[in-house]
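Pilot study result, target chain (135 residues):
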Amino acid sequence: MKKRRRDASSRNPAKGNEPVSVGEAFSLHKPRQLRTEELAAALQAVLQHKEEDEFKFSLQDPWSVQLFVAVARKYGLEPYRTHGQKSQTVMVRARKSVVENQLWPEFNRLGNRLNVAFQKATDELIRESLGPDSQ
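Predicted structure:
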C-alpha cells in the first residue's frame, strides 16, 4: 500500500507541515464584508428565482429554435439546454404569467408568419426549378 502525500493546500503555513482542520482553514481567511448593493442584488436574485418555474420546450425544427431563443431573449430570459438534451429542446426559467401571456403567444404568432414565408419560398422555388406543372 502506498502512502499518500498530503496536499500542500491542507497545510497551515503558520504551523509548518501540520494538517489544517476545516475550522482552522476558515479562520485563516477573514470573510469579506458585502456592500449594501451586493446584498440587495443577491436578495433580489433569490426572490426572483423563487417566483420562476422551469419550462421545457420541444420545438420542431432549427428555425423554430432560433425564433424561440430570439423571442425569449427579447423578454430578458436566458434560454439554455442541459447536457444530453436534443438540439430542438430549449429550457427557460421564467414566471408562468410571462410564458403564458407574452413569450408563447408571440412565438406562435411569429412562427405562423415564418411558416407562411417558408411555404411561399418553397412554392416559388419549385415553380422556378421544375416548372409550373410540377405542383
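One observation from the pilot: The longest strand covers residues 53-58. A full batch analysis is planned for the follow-on phase.
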